[in-house]
Amino acid sequence: MEIEEIVKMIIFVIILVVMVWAVGFLLSGKGVELLGSIKDLLRFGR
């Protein structure tokens, strides 16, 4: 395998893990608070 392919695989796995964690977090009920804080961060970011 080439280095580029390995890097793409690693990035894909990281994104997949983050998405799965995010879904689990949302289902746990704490996701609402997290979304609110993210929206506030986005507002302050601009």
Descriptive notes:
With 46 residues, the chain is mainly alpha-helical. Helices cover 89% and strands 0% of the residues. The protein has helices at residues 3-28, 31-45. It starts with a helix and ends with a helix.
Structural class given helices, strands, pairing? mainly alpha
Q: What share of the residues lie within helices?
A: over 70%
Could you give a short account of the major beta sheet? Answer: none
Question: What is the tally of beta strands?
Answer: 0
| Cα-atom radius of gyration | 15 Å
- Residue windows where pLDDT falls under 50 for at least 5 positions: none
Described by the principal axes of the CA atoms, the overall outline is elongated
Summary, kept brief:
The protein has 46 residues and is mainly α. The chain contains 2 helices and no strands.
Write the layout of secondary structure elements.
Layout lengths: L2 H26 L2 H15 L1
Protein traits:
46 residues; mainly alpha
